[in-house]
Amino acid sequence: MAFDFQVAIDSAEPHVLADWWAEALGWQVEAQDEGFIRRMVEAGYATEDQTMRHHGALVWKEGAAITSPDPDRPRVLFQQVPEPKTVKNRMHFDVRVGADRQEAEVARLKELGATELWRASQGPHEWVTMADPEGNEFCVA
Question: How far apart are alpha carbons 107 and 89 in whole angstroms?
Answer without folding.
Answer: 22
